[in-house]
Every structure is written in structure tokens, then in C-alpha cells.
């Protein structure tokens, strides 16, 4: 009896939970960027999925000239920061001060997402590319088969998330960011360079998404519409966790991906999106501010 | 002896640990002008929010014409005959002055008129013209509210609240930010309203309070400190202490 | 006696009339040269313009951005196809679509209208994605291939009938149909009900203090938009003879939003012009490159930044002045 349960855990449940954890870490990275952008700029970045894809595509391009994986990670991060900065200063700021900011920034970033998606198609073609797994092999822990790359992903992702939380809550930079989120004018009069903080936060947010893209590419492949498929889960995590809350993203991200991973053992995968969406709807109806509060707002 | 047109009994609400309104009771008879005064943070606007249905009370009752309307949403209170204006101008800034008034006056028409062309709502339009004249806004009727001067906007706030022919009118600092001349004109207007409507007013201008009010209610730290005629309240030592520290 | 809003609506009517005249000329030319392709393309443009109309009712008037109107469009298309394959009656298809749209719209509206702004957009997005996924995976609805074999039908009016196979005939019929939808929307939006929607967009907080709940008007507007989207969608299988899950995808919802915004949000007629413009653009750009989305996306972003009121936002005030409107500061 016990051995049957144990075997079930070893061969069925644990691997599935691992998959869920891998996805969870990636979703958290993407959702973290989304929630920082919303919490600080009050902007819904409908192109966030495409920045996730952008990271993967940049990595693809760089890998094709033979650069090693660890260098790819660094370069993607470094390249996406200025891209995000320019997008915020050049595009988003243009509509930021209009009365209907929520709608216009949503529409603008939606348009941007379309352009980016088609640009990927133009540059790389519509078919998926699957990069080789950077760390091959697996280890056996108590009979559970753990692929090394996935372990690296979980560990690495966790480290990045911890670093982000550290920066936001324990550093001067983070304090500036939180101040600017809470009260822009007050922060500005206290000497916080609000313009740069905003642009920097946006850049950082999309860079996190891009990083997730690079990390997940060997597992889920790279194709032009990869952002679109991913974004519903990311938005759900942000909403369930609470827009602007980092803790919320972490908790909701882990929870939702585990729910999805385990339920896919019993229910057809067709229903995983409806379930995720159902959770988002229920949350919005019952407790619209999500599980936790917002980054700067009360 | 008929029921007071507006009565609150032991009305209370807390925000976190703060007792914003604490066990307030009073009754207002028909066609009187009653002013609520008190230092900043006394709970006056919160009191209005409770009465108008914007905020649900934790305890206590709100009665309109003897009918318990406690906890009802704003539109039900409106239907019961209560209308309010706001301290921070809360109008439809992109829409014209006339349209703001018509939106408020439309409630005078039967429901089926909602599905006929706007121009067919003659009663509402007549009310709009009446108010435009009475409040001196007729030449600005087509202007978007955002283009009016501050004083004109404040006047419009009162006009919009009045448009639905309410029984009770709650005016939250109607003269806030107005020039002296505007304030005087508004005071005259409010005085003239008392013939048709019962007015409950929040005001800071003591001169206005003294000249306008039939009755004054003083609030302090969420509680009703005193109630009486302007003269009675002015000479009340507790009131003086609240406003000026020590009498 | 007409106020500014009514005058704006009249200016829209003038522009709509211009569109109709242009369309009639287009039809006449098409008939003369015995064209099929462009007339069918034009019919399709009108059908999608109907969808854009539903977006504008919500966005331009009620202030709600719906990113999932394709749900109702697709609902109308699939239901119409199914009904027609059983009984080739236009009225049966439309009747079924109307009822379904009201019911599903009420449900969707109940779910979505608990929230506003960004959350509303996300919920509508999610709802459409879910339904699209379900339909895509349902064998009985043709899965990824959709449903084919919708028969040609005759639309009977008693005295005359139009065949859906006739390029000119069905183009003119669709034109009339969409104009009727436009007229219905335009009428409703110039009633006190419609003005209440406009008030909701202008300052939702104030509305309850006017004496109205905010829930009922929003829900009603949502259902009306759902019905218009669904009825437009119901025409699609009559034109093309098939339906596919693409009609439910986000791209369909997204295109509708682009159409409404570039055409001119809050003008109603902007949705019509926008629909034509988008179809023409796709056709023209599409003949040079299959990456027309980049061009359209860039134009859309340009419109959002530089032309927030859309094309009609520039043209309509000019028409208003021409009609003799007073110049307000």
C-alpha cells in the first residue's frame, strides 16, 4: 500500500510537480515584471508576452553565432534593458499623461505586441526552433528523476526572484522605486529622478520577462506566438497575487502552476486554460485586489 | 406631528481604528437650513457619505420621512428624495453644463422616456432651463464644465443636486474656494431654496453659517458636540474649546 | 433644440450617408465589370465593421474596453452556420443568433461587469480565449478545421429575395443590414439611456447620485454590443460558406479594436470607415508582403499616439461645423 503511494509519488506526482515548479519559476519572472510595471507605472503592458519572446529570440540569434549559454543570459539581460528604456521613454510616455491613460497605454502596448510578433515571424519564420538543453543529464533523488537543467532553472530563477525582492525592499534604489509608486510628485520633490525610475522599472520588468524566455526556450521551444500563449497565465498570477505585489506574484505563481501541473494528470489539458481563467475571474469577483496588497498603493 | 424629513440615530462608522463618525443622532424638520460645522477631520464629510449611501454605517440608522434607508446604495436614497453635492467638484467635466443638468433632471421623467430621443424629454429640459436661469448659467449652457470658472462649477454642483427636485439637499462646502461675491450670491440662492427643499449644509465660513442657518450642529472628532440655533452654539463653551483650544 | 451630442450624432449620420453612397457606387461598378472577388471582400469588410461597431458602443460610449468581442462574433457565425446546415432559412439563423447572443451576452456581462477598466479588458480577453480554445478542440464543431458546407441561401422579404451567392446582391444586403445595426445603435445612444452610458464613461462615480444604478446600464450596453457582434458574425457563413475557429481568436477581437480606434472611437461611423480602411490596407499591403501586421500595428500605434480621436475624430467636427454647429470654446 505504502509502496504504491510512494511509487506514485516518485514516478507520477513528483515529476509533474517539478514541471509545475519549472513553469512556476518562469511565470513568476514574467509576472514579476508585469506587476512591477503596473504597480509603478500604472501601465498594463499587453506586449509583455512579446518581450518574453524577444528574450528567447535574441538568445536564438546569439546562439547561432556560437555564444555559450551563460553568456547568452547576461547579454539578453543587458540588451533588453535599453530596449525597454527606449520603449518607455519613446512610446509610453507619449500617452502617459492623457486622461484615459489605462486604455491608451493598453492599446499602445497591444499594437506594439502585434508589431513585435510579426517582426519575429519576419526574422525567424513561423516555425518553432528548439535550442539544445544547455545542461544535459539528470540526477536521481530517492528514485525521482530530476533533469539537471530544470533544477538549474528552478534554483537560478529562485535566486533572481530573491534578488529582485531584496533590491526592492532592502535597498535605496528599491526605496526610491516604492516612493515613486506611492506618490510621484512627492517623490519628485524629494529628489527622486522619477522619469528615470519609471523608464528603468519598465526596462527591468521586460528584461525579467526576456530572461524567462531564454531560460524556458530549451523546454518549450521558440516561436512567434509564444508570448500570446503565456500571457494569460502571467496576468492571472498578477491578478490573483495582487497587482503591484511581489509577494503576491510569488505565492500565486507557485500555487497556480502547481494546480495546473497536478490537475493536468487527471483532466485533459484543454481544460487547464479554462481552470486558470476561472480562478482569475473568481478572484476578480470576490477579492479584486488579489491576495496581497499593491506595491506602493495602500 | 409628522416625522422629520431626515433623521439619523446613533450613526457610527470606523475606518481601521479610527471612529470617523461616532454615535451621532439628530433630526431635521422640513424646510429648514441646518449647517454642520466642525474643525477639519471632525467627520462632517463622512457623515454626508453615510447619509447619502456612499459609505455603509457600522451601526445606527438613517431615516428619510420616517422610512429606514440605512445601508441603501446611493441611487435608492436618491429615489427616496435625497440629493447631494460634493466638496470636490464631482461633475461630468467633458459634458456641457446643460447636459450635466439634464442627466440629473432626467429622473423626473417616467422610465419609458429613457428609450425615446433625448429631445422628447420635455419636462427634464424645462427643468434644465429653469435651473440655468436661476443659477445664472444660461449663457454658459453649451460650455463643457471643465471650461467654467471654479465659482461657476461650485454653483453648478448645487444646481445639479437640485435638478431632481429632492426633499433633502445635502450641500458639502458649496462655497469652497469661491470669491467673496460668489459666496454672497450662493448664500442668497441657498436661502431661497429653503422654500421647496430641506437643506443640510457643511460650511466653514462662520459668517455664512450664522446668517443662513436655522439650526447648527457642531461635530468634533466624529461626535456631535452641540446642537442649537447659531447664537446658542456660538456661546457654547465646549464649542469654543473645540475650535480655539481653550475658551 | 438639439444639443452638442445630438449634433455630433447627426454629423455621424452625414458621414454614414456618404459611406453608403460610396458603397453603392462601388457595387454598381462591381456589377458592371462582373467582379466577384472585390465585392465579396467589401461584404466581408462590412461584416467586420459590424463587429467594430460593437466595440465602439462599449469603448467609445460606455468607456469599457472589451478585448473579447470575437466571442460573440464567433458565436453568431457558428450558430448561424449550424442552423443553416439544418434549415437554409436566413430568419431562423438570425433568430437563433439573437436569442443566443442575449443569453450568452447576459452571462458574459454578469461575469465581466463586476469589474471595470483594465480588469474588464482582461476578463473579456480571457473569456474569448477560453471559448476559442474549447471550440478549437471540439470535434463536433469541426475542431481546428471549422465547419464547411454552409449552403447558399435566399433571403426572403416576401416581395423579393436575395441570394447569398450573388456578389452584388449580398453586398447590398449586407450594406443595408449593417446600416440598420448602425442606425439602431445610433438611435439608442441618443436616448437618455445612451446618455447615461456616456455619463458612465465621463464620471462613473457620480452616476449613482443621479439616481441610477451603474450595473443595469452597463449590462444592457454589454448585451446590446454582444447582439450586434453576433448578428454581424451570423452573416459570415452566408458569405463564405464556412466558419473556422480563427473567428474566435484574439486577432479578431484585436482587429475590431484597431478598427474602432483608428476609425474614431465614440463616433460609431468611425467603426464603419475603419473597417473599410483596414480591409483595404490589408489587401494592399498584403499583396506586397505577408507581414501586413507590422504595417497595421505601426499605423495603429501611430493613431493611438497622434490621432487619439481617430480619423472621424478629425473629419466629424468639420462636418459638425458645416452643419451649422455653434462654436464652443
Can you walk through the features of this model?
The complex is a heterotrimer of chains A (298), B (247) and C (329). Chain A is mainly alpha-helical and 298 residues long. Chain A has a domain at 21-126 and 140-224. Chain A contains 11 helices and 2 strands. In chain A, a hairpin with a 2-residue loop joins strand 1 (138-141) and strand 2. Chain A is globular, with a radius of gyration of 19 Å. Chain B is α/β, with parallel strands linked by helices and 247 residues long. Chain B has one domain (6-246): P-loop containing nucleotide triphosphate hydrolases (Rossmann fold, 3-Layer(aba) Sandwich), CATH 3.40.50. Chain B is 34% helix and 24% strand. Chain B is built from 9 helices and 10 strands. Chain B starts with 5 loop residues before the first strand and ends with a helix. The model of chain B has no long low-confidence stretch (mean pLDDT 89). In chain C, helix 2 crosses helix 9 (250-264). Chain C is mainly alpha-helical and 329 residues long. In chain C, a hairpin with a 4-residue loop joins strand 2 (154-156) and strand 3. Chain C is built from 12 helices and 4 strands, in the order αααααβββαααβαααα. In chain C, the strands form 2 sheets. Chain C has a two-stranded antiparallel sheet with strand order 1-4. Chain C has a two-stranded antiparallel ribbon with strand order 2-3. Chains A and C meet through helix 3, helix 4, helix 9 and helix 11 of A and helix 5, helix 9 and helix 11 of C.
Reconstruct the topology from this structure.
The complex is a heterotrimer of chains A (298), B (247) and C (329).
Chain A: H1 2-41, H2 48-63, H3 69-96, H4 101-124, E1 138-141, E2 144-147, H5 148-170, H6 172-182, H7 184-189, H8 194-220, H9 226-241, H10 246-266, H11 272-286
Helix pairs in contact in A: 1-5, 1-8, 1-9, 1-10, 2-3, 2-4, 2-8, 2-9, 3-4, 3-8, 5-6, 9-10, 9-11
Chain B: E1 6-15, E2 18-28, E3 33-37, H1 44-52, E4 59-64, E5 67-68, H2 74-79, E6 82-84, H3 97-105, H4 122-134, H5 150-162, E7 168-172, H6 180-193, E8 198-202, H7 206-212, E9 215-220, E10 223-228, H8 230-234, H9 237-244
Parallel strand pairs in B: 3-8, 3-9, 6-7, 7-8
Antiparallel strand pairs in B: 1-2, 1-4, 4-5, 9-10
Chain C: H1 4-32, H2 37-62, H3 70-86, H4 90-112, H5 117-136, E1 147-148, E2 154-156, E3 161-163, H6 167-189, H7 192-203, H8 215-240, E4 242-243, H9 250-264, H10 269-288, H11 292-306, H12 310-322
Antiparallel strand pairs in C: 1-4, 2-3
Helix pairs in contact in C: 1-6, 1-10, 1-12, 2-6, 2-8, 2-9, 2-10, 3-4, 3-8, 4-8, 6-8, 9-10, 9-12, 10-11, 10-12
Amino acid at each position: 500500500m505504502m509502496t504504491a503511494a510512494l511509487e506514485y509519488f516518485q514516478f507520477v506526482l513528483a515529476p509533474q510537480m517539478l514541471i509545475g515548479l519549472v513553469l512556476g519559476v518562469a511565470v513568476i519572472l514574467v509576472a514579476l515584471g508585469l506587476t512591477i510595471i503596473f504597480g509603478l507605472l500604472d501601465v498594463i503592458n499587453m506586449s509583455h508576452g512579446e518581450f518574453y519572446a524577444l528574450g528567447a529570440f535574441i538568445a536564438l540569434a546569439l546562439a547561432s553565432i556560437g555564444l555559450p549559454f551563460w553568456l547568452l543570459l547576461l547579454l539578453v539581460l543587458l540588451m533588453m534593458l535599453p530596449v525597454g528604456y527606449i520603449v518607455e521613454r519613446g512610446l509610453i510616455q507619449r500617452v502617459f499623461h492623457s486622461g484615459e491613460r489605462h486604455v491608451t497605454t493598453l492599446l499602445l502596448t497591444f499594437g506594439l505586441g502585434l508589431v513585435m510578433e510579426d517582426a519575429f515571424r519576419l526574422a525567424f519564420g513561423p516555425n518553432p526552433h528548439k535550442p539544445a538543453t544547455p545542461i544535459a543529464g539528470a540526477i536521481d533523488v530517492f528514485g525521482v528523476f530530476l533533469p539537471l537543467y530544470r533544477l538549474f532553472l528552478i534554483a537560478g530563477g529562485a535566486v533572481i526572484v530573491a534578488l529582485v525582492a531584496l533590491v526592492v525592499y532592502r535597498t535605496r534604489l528599491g526605496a526610491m522605486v516604492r516612493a515613486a509608486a506611492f506618490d510621484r510628485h512627492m517623490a519628485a520633490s524629494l529628489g527622486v529622478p522619477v522619469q528615470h525610475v519609471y523608464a528603468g522599472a519598465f526596462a527591468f520588468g521586460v528584461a525579467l520577462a526576456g530572461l524567462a524566455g531564454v531560460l524556458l526556450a530549451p523546454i518549450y521551444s521558440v516561436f512567434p506566438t509564444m508570448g500570446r500563449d503565456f500571457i494569460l497565465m502571467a496576468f492571472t498570477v498578477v491578478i490573483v497575487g495582487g497587482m503591484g505585489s511581489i509577494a503576491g506574484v510569488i505565492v500565486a505563481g507557485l500555487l497556480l502552476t502547481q494546480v495546473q501541473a497536478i490537475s493536468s494528470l487527471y483532466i485533459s489539458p484543454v481544460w487547464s486554460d479554462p481552470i486558470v481563467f476561472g480562478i482569475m475571474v473568481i478572484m476578480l469577483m470576490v477579492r479584486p485586489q488579489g491576495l496581497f496588497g499593491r506595491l506602493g498603493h495602500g | 406631528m409628522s416625522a422629520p424629513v431626515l433623521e439619523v440615530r446613533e450613526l457610527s462608522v470606523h475606518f481601521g481604528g479610527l471612529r470617523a463618525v461616532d454615535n451621532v443622532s439628530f433630526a431635521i424638520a422640513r424646510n429648514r437650513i441646518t449647517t454642520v460645522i466642525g474643525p477639519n477631520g471632525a467627520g462632517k464629510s463622512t457623515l454626508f457619505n453615510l447619509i447619502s449611501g456612499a459609505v455603509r454605517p457600522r451601526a445606527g440608522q438613517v431615516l428619510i420621512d420616517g422610512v429606514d434607508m440605512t445601508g441603501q446604495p446611493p441611487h435608492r436614497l436618491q429615489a427616496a428624495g435625497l440629493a447631494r453635492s460634493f466638496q470636490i467638484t464631482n461633475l461630468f467635466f467633458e459634458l456641457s453644463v446643460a447636459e450635466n443638468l439634464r442627466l440629473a433632471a432626467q429622473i423626473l421623467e417616467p422610465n419609458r422616456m429613457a428609450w425615446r430621443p433625448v429631445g422628447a424629454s420635455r419636462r427634464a429640459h424645462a427643468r434644465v432651463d429653469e435651473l440655468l436661469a436661476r443659477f445664472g448659467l444660461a449663457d454658459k449652457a453649451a460650455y463643457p464644465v471643465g471650461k467654467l470658472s471654479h465659482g461657476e462649477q461650485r454653483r453648478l454642483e448645487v444646481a445639479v443636486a437640485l435638478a431632481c427636485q429632492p426633499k433633502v439637499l445635502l450641500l458639502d462646502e458649496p462655497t469652497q474656494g469661491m470669491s467673496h461675491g460668489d459666496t454672497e450670491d450662493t448664500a442668497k440662492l441657498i436661502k431661497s431654496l429653503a422654500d421647496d427643499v430641506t437643506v443640510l449644509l457643511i460650511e466653514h465660513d462662520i459668517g455664512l453659517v450664522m446668517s443662513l442657518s436655522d439650526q447648527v450642529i457642531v461635530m468634533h472628532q466624529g461626535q456631535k458636540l452641540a446642537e442649537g440655533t447659531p447664537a446658542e452654539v456660538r456661546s457654547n463653551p465646549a464649542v469654543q474649546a473645540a475650535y480655539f483650544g481653550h475658551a | 433644440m438639439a444639443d452638442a451630442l445630438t449634433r455630433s450624432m447627426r454629423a455621424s449620420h452625414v458621414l454614414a450617408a456618404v459611406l453608403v453612397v460610396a458603397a453603392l457606387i462601388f457595387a454598381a461598378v462591381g456589377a458592371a465589370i462582373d467582379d466577384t472577388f472585390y465585392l465579396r471582400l467589401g461584404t466581408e469588410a462590412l461584416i467586420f465593421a459590424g463587429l467594430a461597431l460593437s466595440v465602439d458602443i462599449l469603448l467609445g460610449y460606455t468607456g469599457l474596453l472589451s478585448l473579447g468581442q470575437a466571442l460573440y462574433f464567433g458565436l453568431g457565425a457558428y450558430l448561424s452556420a449550424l442552423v443553416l446546415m439544418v434549415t437554409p432559412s436566413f430568419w431562423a439563423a438570425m433568430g437563433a443568433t439573437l436569442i443566443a447572443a442575449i443569453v450568452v451576452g447576459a452571462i458574459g456581462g454578469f461575469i465581466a461587469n463586476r469589474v471595470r477598466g483594465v480588469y474588464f479588458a482582461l476578463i473579456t480577453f480571457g473569456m474569448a480565449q477560453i471559448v476559442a480554445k474549447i471550440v478549437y478542440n471540439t470535434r463536433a464543431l469541426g475542431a481546428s478545421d471549422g465547419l464547411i458546407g454552409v449552403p447558399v441561401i435566399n433571403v426572403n422579404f416576401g416581395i423579393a429575395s436575395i441570394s447569398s451567392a450573388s456578389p452584388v446582391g449580398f453586398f447590398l444586403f449586407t450594406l443595408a443590414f449593417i446600416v440598420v445595426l448602425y442606425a439602431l445603435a445610433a438611435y439608442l445612444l441618443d436616448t437618455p439611456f445612451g446618455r447615461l452610458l456616456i455619463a458612465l464613461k465621463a464620471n462613473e462615480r457620480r452616476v449613482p447620485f443621479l439616481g441610477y444604478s451603474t450595473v443595469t446600464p452597463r449590462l444592457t450596453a454589454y448585451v446590446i454590443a454582444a447582439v450586434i457582434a453576433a448578428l454581424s458574425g451570423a452573416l459570415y457563413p452566408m458569405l463564405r460558406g464556412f466558419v473556422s475557429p480563427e473567428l474566435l481568436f484574439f486577432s479578431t477581437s484585436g482587429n475590431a479594436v484597431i478598427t474602432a480606434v483608428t476609425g474614431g472611437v465614440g463616433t460609431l461611423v468611425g467603426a464603419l470607415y475603419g473597417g473599410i480602411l483596414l480591409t483595404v490596407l490589408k489587401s494592399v499591403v498584403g499583396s506586397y508582403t505577408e507581414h501586413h501586421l507590422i504595417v497595421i500595428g505601426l499605423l495603429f500605434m501611430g493613431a493611438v499616439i497622434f490621432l487619439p480621436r481617430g480619423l472621424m475624430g478629425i473629419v466629424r467636427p468639420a462636418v459638425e461645423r458645416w452643419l451649422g454647429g455653434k462654436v464652443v470654446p
